[in-house]
C-alpha cells in the first residue's frame, strides 16, 4: 500500500507537478502528476531523455546488494530526466525528495507514451530510497493526496 504525495511546481517551475508514492517499506516511486504541464492540453510525450547534461549519468547507475551500494544520492532538485512532447516542449523531471536512486524506468526510452497512458503505474519515472533517518519526514514538504485533489479535482 502506498501513501500518495504531490509536489506542485517542483523547484519553482510552473506546471512541474509530480507525484511521490511512498510504500510502507519507505521506498518512493516518482512520476508525473495528472496536472503536469507535459500531460496538459492533450500533449503527448514522445521522448524521455535520461542524458540531461554532461555530468548526469543516471542511466549508468548500477545498484547492487542488500545495502544498495553504488546508488547515486539525489537532493530534491536532482534531475532525473527530461521529457519531450509532440509540440516540441521540453520538461525537466526532478526527484522531489532526498534519497538514493535505485531505479530509472528504462522502459520509458522505448515507450515514452506510458507517461500519458499509465502515469501512475507502468509510467513511473524512478524509484528512490530515502535516507534511513529521513524515511518518515521525506514527504513532509509535499501535498497530501487530499490537498492535491482539492486543488486539482479529477475531470
Automatic annotation (TrEMBL):
<dbReference type="InterPro" id="IPR011053">
    <property type="entry name" value="Single_hybrid_motif"/>
</dbReference>
<dbReference type="GO" id="GO:0005634">
    <property type="term" value="C:nucleus"/>
</dbReference>
<comment type="similarity">
    <text>Belongs to the ABITRAM family.</text>
</comment>
<dbReference type="Pfam" id="PF01597">
    <property type="entry name" value="GCV_H"/>
</dbReference>
<dbReference type="InterPro" id="IPR033753">
    <property type="entry name" value="GCV_H/Fam206"/>
</dbReference>
<dbReference type="InterPro" id="IPR039169">
    <property type="entry name" value="Abitram"/>
</dbReference>
<protein>
    <recommendedName>
        <fullName>Protein Abitram</fullName>
    </recommendedName>
</protein>
Amino acid at each position: 500500500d502506498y501513501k500518495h504525495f504531490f509536489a506542485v511546481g517542483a523547484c519553482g517551475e510552473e506546471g512541474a507537478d509530480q507525484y511521490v508514492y511512498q510504500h510502507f517499506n519507505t521506498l518512493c516511486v516518482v512520476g508525473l502528476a495528472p496536472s503536469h504541464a507535459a500531460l496538459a492540453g492533450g500533449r503527448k510525450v514522445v521522448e524521455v531523455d535520461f542524458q540531461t547534461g554532461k555530468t548526469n549519468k543516471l542511466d549508468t547507475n548500477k545498484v547492487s546488494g542488500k545495502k544498495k551500494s553504488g546508488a547515486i544520492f539525489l537532493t530534491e532538485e536532482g534531475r532525473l530526466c527530461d521529457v519531450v512532447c509532440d509540440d516540441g516542449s521540453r520538461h525537466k523531471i526532478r526527484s522531489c525528495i532526498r534519497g538514493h536512486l535505485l531505479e530509472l524506468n528504462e522502459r520509458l526510452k522505448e515507450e515514452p507514451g506510458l507517461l500519458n497512458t499509465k502515469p501512475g503505474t507502468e509510467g513511473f519515472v524512478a524509484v528512490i530510497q530515502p535516507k534511513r533517518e529521513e524515511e518518515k519526514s521525506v514527504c513532509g514538504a509535499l501535498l497530501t493526496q487530499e490537498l492535491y485533489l482539492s486543488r486539482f479535482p479529477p475531470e
